[in-house]
Amino acid sequence: MTTSPMTTTPTSPRPRPSRVPLSPSNIQVRAGSHSLEALTGQEQYAFATEVVVHPGFSDQDGEGSYADDLMLLRIQPALTVTPFVQPLTLPSAPPAPGTNCTVMGWGTTTSPEGMGHPGGEAGGRAE
Question: Which 3 state secondary structure label does DSSP give 18?
């Protein structure tokens, strides 16, 4: 795998609201992990070398504060593709408006309560 950007959220690496700046030196990536508490030996580690936060993101709590909670990271060293670390395949075009979409990950659908769990699923309609 190359050092192509990977996606995460600005709220993942730090609690909200936070005075810790979002800079590459403050972010370490752990890929291939299925549990925050237990290590399996399948994990890979990398450091962020570049951080790009969605321009609409606000780290202030409040209604809609997670609306643009998206961040890209460029990492080093490159991750190795394994059964536990896989690239995300993006569609070649956005879904048509009104299409039902599903995403999976560590997130929560009841933010800000709780961290969520791996394999968490959320759905919505494309706009």
Answer: coil
Burial class (CB in 10 A: 0-12, 13-18, 19+), 35: exposed
Range of the domain at 111: 91-127
pLDDT tens figures, 18-61 = 545 667 888 888 888 877 788 999 999 999 999 888 888 776 66
Can you give the pTM of this predicted structure? 0.65
Cβ 90 vs Cβ 101: under 8 Å: no
Q: Which residues contact 44 (CB under 8 A, 6 or more apart)?
A: 30, 31, 32, 79, 80, 82, 85
Summarised one tens digit per residue, pLDDT across range 49-62 is 998 888 887 766 66
72 and 104 housed in the same domain: no
Q: Is 80 left (phi over 0), alpha (psi -120 to 50) or beta?
A: beta
